[in-house]
Write a structure and sequence with these properties.
Number of strands: 17
Number of helices: 10
Strand content: 25-35%
Distance between the termini: 53 Å
CATH architecture of the largest domain: Sandwich
CATH topology of the largest domain: Tumour Suppressor Smad4
Shape: globular
Largest sheet: 15 strands, mixed
CATH class of the largest domain: Mainly Beta
Number of domains: 2
Radius of gyration: 21 Å
Helix content: 25-40%
């Protein structure tokens, strides 16, 4: 009887043990063209092994456009834990592939803004991020959808998109987030406000806008934009910086870009599970830092679409999309 009981207990615990063992095996993919990727690749491999993770495969990626296909290839091989090192663009590219799968994403924040990592509470230093990969937990978080594509963190319309489109990668490598400020100063001189129409549940909201930012997390461009937002609350948040005169709005935009409190009436904040955004004239749209499309766009939330490794203290949101 004792032997039978021991067998039963072994069967009960075997799936849990198998899951723990699987969580110790990982594939590492690093965008070595990201700001700190080249020097972080070797160090990451060393630290991951020291943390007790078994690396089934490792890939330094010099050309970022190869990263999505590389993730697909690893998924096809049956990998269940894929660690991606790079900026928000690299993380977003991997998330787009892994959305809706049973593969867990691990994040090594090696970019300029690292908004996705910030929203999840993942440390921005390499040892701290690896501690999360080795000792954290797996959670389901939301992704945004723009058209048929997923985004991991945010979309921006207006000056941020123009700045992102005009900032050379080499400048970001030299100056980090300061590169955006340098380019923004130049873009501001020729920037014009636009009319923005946001339609939620059939109701149109029209604004004279300087800047529109849409996110599923609370950080956008490395700045805390939506303190009450949560990456698993089932909602997309939109922030509109209102104004129709560029020079008169310099103070507004500086506060907005820095994540400081703006004056009442300067910013319109809304939340929804789905919205459409149109502008006059049409504007470029930056998706996770990369300009990929133009308005009009349809944006929605993909609730719980991504499995990701998060810190042990990460708490699920009590809010849900409505």
């Amino acid at each position: 009887m004792l032997i039978v009981q021991e067998r039963i207990e072994a069967e009960v615990h075997r799936p849990e043990e198998a899951a723990r063992a699987q969580a110790r095996r990982a594939t590492l993919i690093v965008n070595t063209h990201s700001r700190s990727g080249a020097r972080a690749y070797s160090q990451a491999k060393k630290l991951l092994l020291e943390a007790g993770l078994e690396l089934e495969a490792t890939h330094p990626v010099r050309h970022a456009e190869r990263l999505p296909q590389l993730v697909r290839d690893e998924v096809a091989k049956g990998r269940k834990f894929i660690i991606v090192g790079g900026g928000d663009g690299s993380i977003a590219a991997a998330a787009d592939v892994l959305a809706g799968t049973d593969v867990t994403l691990g994040v090594l924040p090696l970019g300029t803004a690292n908004s996705f990592a910030r929203s999840l509470g993942i440390p921005l230093d390499l040892p701290g991020a690896i501690d999360v990969l080795a000792g954290g937990k797996t959670a389901r978080v939301d992704l945004g959808r723009i058209g048929d594509a997923y985004f991991a963190n945010n979309c921006s319309i207006g000056l941020p998109a123009n700045v992102g489109r005009s900032t050379p990668p080499q400048l970001k490598r030299w100056f980090g987030r300061g590169a955006y400020a340098l380019v923004a100063a130049r873009e501001w001189l020729r920037y014009k406000p636009f009319r923005c129409t946001i339609t939620i549940a059939g109701k149109a909201h029209v604004f004279e806008a300087l800047d529109v930012r849409i996110g599923s997390g609370n950080y956008q461009g490395g700045v805390l934009m939506a303190p009450d937002a949560n990456p698993d609350d089932g909602l997309i948040s939109v922030h509109v910086l209102k104004g129709n005169a560029t020079w008169g709005a310099a103070r507004k935009w500086a506060c907005f870009a820095a994540g400081l409190r703006c004056k009442p009436g300067d910013v319109e904040e809304m939340e929804a599970t789905e919205m459409t955004i149109a502008t006059d004239p049409p504007q470029h749209v930056a998706v996770d830092g990369e300009v990929t499309t133009m308005t009009p766009v349809k944006i929605s939330v993909a609730h719980g679409a991504l499995l990701v490794r998060v810190p042990p203290e990460f708490e699920r949101s009590k809010r849900r999309g409505r």
